[in-house]
Amino acid sequence: MATKSPSTKSNGSTVVADNAAKAAQSDYDALKSDLSQLRDDVASLAGNSGKYIKGRSSEGLEKGYAQSKEYFEKAKSEASNGREYVENKVRENPLTSVGIAFGTGVLLAALRRR
């Protein structure tokens, strides 16, 4: 069985096949280069996104910390004002205060027995 080798074909078809192979190789190399560039771009984007998110979360954390500190100071001030108010009322009406405390204690004791 004799088979024809590419060299026995006409020169036109061999040239076309060679040109097609070169074009395919060129396209393959370009695709590899594009994929490599895309990989680098995605890695860069991921790194930059991480930095951006870290920066934004730090800003949010600082803002939350400042706001919680402000709320703490307000609560501390209101608790102090409430304590002063109760102390003044106890000084103005000591017997009433003792009666209220006694009645509250009796009520809580009754509730705990149930």
Structure write-up:
The protein has helices at 11-92, 94-113. It has one domain. It is 89% helix and 0% strand. It starts with 10 loop residues before the first helix and ends with a helix. The chain has 114 residues and is mainly α.
Could you outline the blueprint of secondary structure elements for this entry?
Elements: H1 11-92, H2 94-113
Helix pairs in contact: 1-2
Beta strand count: 0
Tally of domains: 1
Shape: rod-shaped
The main sheet comes to:
none
Number of helices: 2
The radius of gyration is: 43 Å
N-to-C SSE string, H for helix and E for strand: HH
Helix content: over 70%
- Helix/strand/pairing class, anyone? mainly alpha
Give the low-pLDDT segments: none
Summary keywords:
rod-shaped
What's a concise summary of this model?
The protein has 114 residues and is mostly helical. The protein has helices at 11-92, 94-113.
